[in-house]
Amino acid sequence: MTEGAGHERTIPRVGLRCTIRFQARAAEERLTARTGFCRSVIMGQLGLTVENVRCIQWNQQEKAFDVTLMDLNIFNRVAETCVKEAGVSPLSDYRVVNLDRPNFRVVTEREPVSPVRGLALGEPTTVWRNVNHPALPNRLRDLSWMTAHEILPVRSVMHSRGMGANPTCPRQGCGAHETVRHVLWECTAAGDQWAMAGSLQFPYLPAGEVLTAQLVLYGVSPKKVPPALFQKQWLTLSAIKDAIWTSRNLLVRKRMLIPPVAVIRMAAATLKVVVAAGGRPRTQPQRSLASVPIRTWEPEPHN
Ligand SMILES: [Zn+2]
């Protein structure tokens, strides 16, 4: 991120669906502490429950909480309250910014985009371009977006938002914190799945030795790839991540253990649907696995 960037400048160009930013007007503990914010603003003034909120992400650089609501109805309701009660404390202690799509219009091309942790300067632009890559259908864009923001509802993310009791990977014998990177790349289960994908099924999957976390998660690679080829690579990688994430959700919600070969078959099926849709890249591939409806974006049930 460029030094001295103003507040407006880090609003991502892609827009953040159903997301509202609450930026503390003063760098005081009472405004920037998560628990206090959740209690006074989220639960108190806005009257939201855990079910209404997809995630609350603290943005250190902006000294702001980015709150992603479950759906558009809740988002609209909250936005309305924020306008109505802008002058009422504690809301008045925060500058409220709408990060949803309409915000897209006020951000110009020259603005730098959100930093992504662990990436070298200059690369975030590539990341944000890939998140919204025209080759991806909406569902894969959503997954890429949540991956880049590290807000996919994995256990460590839910735990840090106070919405899950256990930050540990659900795979038996793993024991690591389930981060976004862990579930899609570092976990042994993910390793097995990527290894399986490395067989002959995907003509556009980069060869095993050049498959890196940066490439898999964000589509960033030091190797120059022609755009037409990259488009196919990125779609392939996204479809595999989608299948890995789905298999993880089936494990958590339905206690179904999907073997790597079936996960990869699922990815291949997604790819086939997307490629068949050809000129209509924004269609949503429908998937089913043994007739079990898969609802990927639901938060993990917490009791
Ligand atoms: Zn694991």
TrEMBL record:
<feature type="domain" description="Reverse transcriptase zinc-binding">
    <location>
        <begin position="126"/>
        <end position="194"/>
    </location>
</feature>
<feature type="region of interest" description="Disordered">
    <location>
        <begin position="283"/>
        <end position="303"/>
    </location>
</feature>
<dbReference type="InterPro" id="IPR026960">
    <property type="entry name" value="RVT-Znf"/>
</dbReference>
<dbReference type="Pfam" id="PF13966">
    <property type="entry name" value="zf-RVT"/>
</dbReference>
<protein>
    <recommendedName>
        <fullName>Reverse transcriptase</fullName>
    </recommendedName>
</protein>
<feature type="domain" description="Zinc finger CCHC">
    <location>
        <begin position="17"/>
        <end position="93"/>
    </location>
</feature>
<dbReference type="Pfam" id="PF23057">
    <property type="entry name" value="RBD_ZCCHC3_1st"/>
</dbReference>
<dbReference type="InterPro" id="IPR057810">
    <property type="entry name" value="RBD_ZCCHC3_1st"/>
</dbReference>
